[in-house]
Amino acid sequence: MMIQQIKKIAFSLGIFLIAACSELTEVPDFINPNTFYQSAAELELGVNAVYDDLNSRGFGYFYDRYVFECLVGYQVGWEKGPLQYNLGNVDPANEYIEDYWGICYRSINRANAVIEVADQLEDPGNEALIQRLKAEAMFLRSFYYYSLLSYFDNPPLLVGSTQNLDNLPSNSGGKRAVLDQIIADARTAGEVLPESYPASDAGRATKWAAKAVLMKAHLWDENWSAARETAEEIISTSGIQLFEDFSHNFDLAHENQGERIFEAQVSASANPSEYSVHSAHFNPEDFPSQLGGSGWSWLSATQEFRAAYHPDDKRIEGTFIESYPTGRLGLVNGTYPVVHWSATADYNLSRFGGVVRADANPNDPKQMVFGKAWSAKLTELDKHNAQTEKNTVYIRFADVLLGHSEACNENGQGDPLMGINKVRTRAGLASLPTGMGQDELRDAIIHERMQEFVFEQVMYAELRRKSKFGGSPDYLGDQIRHFSEKYNLGRTVKTSDYVLPLPLKELQGNPNVTQNPEWQ
């Protein structure tokens, strides 16, 4: 897919001129990139375009991650993509893999070109701005490479803008080369980027976003000391704290604030071409369109996953839709009756399995129940899917806290309970006790991550990072086996479940790229 993109655009600076997000609103006409970039203001337009793919219009960057997440089994869907991933049916020609790969490399190529322009640009009086813009591009390059590493292990490394097909990138350096690039870019960006921006520049990468990616790369590298030190720097010097109310991470009123370290800017009212499709995919199947519901309702979590939360967990309200008006029974006395989630409601994996029964008595509360676990994090039930306003959150402070606990637990240095207990305290749960063994705490951190980050499309990557096929621990394999057995799917755990294949089009077009061993 990267090769296909290269052939289409050859030199992607021309595409730079697409504006990035609702707060970054420049949308000039197409201009020759070889003559356009003469000032820091013009360079800024190019940087804005590198942010652009963070939004998820149609089958975009974040939607592809929806589908990948269905490999685990706690998030399920009836549309062909999610359903096939639930069943473990993946291959190198998969359209979601090709799409995600192409998006990431398009953005990496744009970032590479921005960095090259910044190194040559002369704009007296704006040197500091040029360096900041270059650092933003370096952060975004590290972010997109981390996005590739999370799923593919060994993507080819491309650090210069593509002018032609003479020097195709290679993945011969493996995971090591990509990790080194992520770490170098994130570290450099973290030394240049500001801690915050004025409202006019909301959504740009900060010092803390770069430091968070750096910490996550160190975790992947199992460099526990470096991960702990980076997490402690963020915790002790950023001033960032968890929101008291978990739901503030996903509402409109608290965008670009507090623990929301990095998020894509979405506003259909500001720019109709830049909206998310999250609500369309996650809103309840039977929510009345007359009340604003729209879309396909392809995705939810299982009833069992929702039931696993402690009943006092304060995250439930911000994570799941617990009640809503249903159109399943039509109008009753002039209104749509309200249904409530129940652990005992009928549930199966079919399209309508888990919604209120069509023959339910609207006057009997025991029958007005549903079993699907619909997402409150991503949905906007009062809006048509082309009118969505919610930003897409990619990095939160809770990730830093849990990363700190993991690093401390794995290397025996620092306080491994501090971070996870802050997350649990915010959730209204009891702190974990001192004296827990390393294995026990590792399990607890994984459990906390799953309940904290469901619907944020990160857990397949996190589970595979901490798992080994046929080994111990094997969190990913355990999840897949349980899902298959519970719903009688006949799915068996395979080595190829633990990493996605490099796309077939890339392999066919680039002789310098080798397929992941699990897929050879």
UniProtKB/TrEMBL annotation:
Domain SusD-like N-terminal: 90-217
Record InterPro entries: SusD-like_N, SusD_RagB_dom, TPR-like_helical_dom_sf
A Pfam family per the record: SusD_RagB
Range of residues in the leader sequence: none
Keywords: Cell outer membrane, Membrane, Signal
PROSITE patterns per UniProt: PROKAR_LIPOPROTEIN
Principal localisation: membrane
Designated name of the protein: Starch-binding associating with outer membrane
